[in-house]
Design goal:
Helix content is about 30%, strand content about 20%. By secondary structure, the protein is α/β, with parallel strands linked by helices.
Length: about 280
Amino acid sequence: MSVDLTQVTVRLGRDADTHTVLGSISLSLGAGEQVAIIGPSGAGKTTLLHTLACAIKPSDGTLTINNETPWTLSKSALHKLRGRIFLAPQAPPLPPRQRVVNAVLAGRLAGMGMLSALMSLYKPKDAALAFAALSRFKLGDKLWLRCDRLSGGERQRVGLARMMVSSAPLILLDEPVSALDPALGLLALKTIQDEATARHATLAVSLHDVQLARARFARLIGLKAGRIHFDLPASAVDEATLADLYGSEFEEAAGMMRPRAAAAAVAELPAVVAPPAAARCF
């Protein structure tokens, strides 16, 4: 799925409180391309991802997805288009009493009818599919737990497992490994990228860890104060470029305080045989 933004500006707030979050953004993502979006806190990374997901309407400029302009579509057509886009926030909004299996299978709801969706909440039909997705993030044993029994990092991985069961050709992830340790974060990001490659999906990921972004992505987009500061191959993003982007935040953003050298080698996950039996949750 290809994406193009032309001079897109996003203003948020009301009346006198309105402020510009993104200013004159022009950006193109080719079908199947994988990019990392980096930049200091408050640069507009989250707003950019929500704009790409058709969750925020541009104040000015044009967003085009697969040669369609979403905000000129009918409500039903726009809803259908949104169903082909997967957006994962940094902290997935998982209902506390919901079982993990249901939280993961929610990634398939966009392609289901109302009755099937309601039935799946009562009795999940594809627990094996959810188990396989969770296992790729080392969470297979959490299948029948309630979401309020999970740690922050486990909740984040459940959100990523939800992406695995979706068939979305456009995947947008906001700081998907921020709550994970270096080795697990690298494993999770590799799993995400392998899945995107397998389904030829376009992938845009915002990352705070610049070292990880440079190691895993061929193209980096630097965002600063709501504008594109640079759009370069990772090989061209040197320390001077990063220092200019981050200013005083550069040392932390470059990963100097949290090196990932020990996580360079990622072990392959064991083959999935069968999901655990259903357990009653209280």
